[in-house]
């Protein structure tokens, strides 16, 4: 059984309900090769002059780095200082509305608390957000219903509030169209893939000249997918460590 901690008495959820406690991934700067321009565009949309609530969708196939890009923006000092409330919530394919609301509420109040079983968390969340400039990231949404389950909890107001959604499904991104068009994440160029591969394998050291040709071929075979580059780089780095023993 999972126990949800919120304000008041504790609520016990059945073991069949997935917990939304996936930790936010730790991302180094070397994992965002090629995203500098993308991040700049998104940050301008988030801090722009539009006062009404805006929803920005980042979409693309798995492995393109949607979450990585969103995290880079989320952690940028200009974004951190711009918003009163910041929330990062992983939705994923299997979710429950209650767990999502509780997770968002806990981050919005920025403290541990307990909730009574009959509390209306959606209403509590809405009241907490009213009057504040908030940024809520909903990472990895798979279906429109997930957004419909949550959207009424986000007050519109005119405080420059923003919601960022990452999704691999273009139809979901288009459904969420608000004021900003969905942002389609591009593939890395071969050169960017090579830079990322070197950084992950050699950790700041230069690639030996006798390995450059093979490395370029590997980078090309990654087809511009950052996740594939990182995974292959991890395998190569492990092989190098074992060979040096």
Automatic annotation (TrEMBL):
Keywords: ATP-binding, Leucine-rich repeat, Nucleotide-binding, Plant defense. Residues 9-23 have a biased composition (Polar residues). GO terms for molecular function: ADP binding; ATP binding. Residues 1-26 are annotated as: Disordered. The keyword Aminoacyl-tRNA synthetase does not apply. Residues 36-205 form the NB-ARC domain. GO terms for biological process: defense response. Pfam families: NB-ARC. Gene3D superfamilies: Helical domain of apoptotic protease-activating factors (1.10.8.430), P-loop containing nucleotide triphosphate hydrolases (3.40.50.300). The keyword Magnesium does not apply. PANTHER family: NBS-CODING RESISTANCE GENE ANALOG, PLANT BROAD-SPECTRUM MILDEW RESISTANCE PROTEIN RPW8. Belongs to the disease resistance NB-LRR family. This is NB-ARC domain-containing protein.
